[in-house]
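To the wet lab folks,

You asked to see what we're planning to order before we commit. Fair enough. Below is the target structure as tokens, and below that is the sequence we designed to fit it. If anything looks off to you, flag it before the synthesis order goes out.
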């Protein structure tokens, strides 16, 4: 079923569940609006005409929001007179959602309300008590105690050298009788000769 309604000096073809933008109505978002200026209605092969309106026909809609339309630029220009005028405009609009169409002789078309799906939440396990944790933990044997994770094994102290021993230590090359540090002699490096062609006097 559809109907043709008039509001704000304009005519709109509406169906249940559709949204339409009309001229601004002095109502708040979420309120119900009754459009009783119904010019025409049709259901299947039956058509009802109004002269000019259908008596008793009502279209009920819900206000979705109040907003402004796209910005329009108005530019006025007159040649040879240096006249330039530029202004903007945004139309105030109201967005409606059609909920019911009630036409005498044709019946009533109502928007079906979809039930919300029921989501079953998983059961939350209860926290285990201290007694339950103690029962689950395996008992330690009497002969050997289980090491605790918080206690680190003992580390043997490292051997420390005496300062006097470090000062009196003899290097290996002094022990061999050579008091000079070993040196390495590298052969001299020379650049390879490059034969240049003789081009004559410059």
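Sequence we intend to order:
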């Amino acid at each position: 079923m559809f109907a043709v309604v008039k509001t704000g000096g304009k005519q709109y073809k509406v169906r249940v569940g559709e949204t339409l933008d009309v001229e601004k109505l002095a109502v708040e978002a979420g309120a119900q609006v009754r459009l009783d200026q119904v010019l025409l209605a049709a259901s299947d092969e039956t058509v009802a005409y109004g002269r000019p309106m259908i008596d008793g026909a009502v279209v009920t809609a819900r206000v979705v929001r109040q907003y402004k339309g796209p910005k329009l630029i108005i530019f006025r220009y007159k040649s040879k007179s240096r006249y330039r005028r530029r202004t903007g405009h945004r139309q105030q609009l109201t967005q409606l959602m059609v909920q019911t169409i009630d036409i005498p002789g044709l019946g009533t078309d109502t928007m079906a309300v979809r039930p919300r799906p029921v989501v079953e939440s998983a059961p939350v396990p209860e926290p285990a008590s201290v007694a339950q944790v103690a029962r689950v933990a395996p008992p330690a044997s009497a002969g050997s105690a289980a090491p605790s994770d918080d206690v680190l094994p003992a580390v043997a102290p490292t051997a420390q050298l005496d300062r006097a021993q470090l000062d009196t230590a003899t290097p290996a090359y002094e022990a061999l009788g050579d008091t000079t540090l070993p040196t390495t002699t590298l052969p001299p490096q020379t650049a390879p000769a490059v034969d240049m062609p003789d081009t004559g006097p410059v």
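Structural context that might help your review: The first strand starts at residue 2 and ends at 7. The radius of gyration is 49 Å.

Thanks,
Computational group
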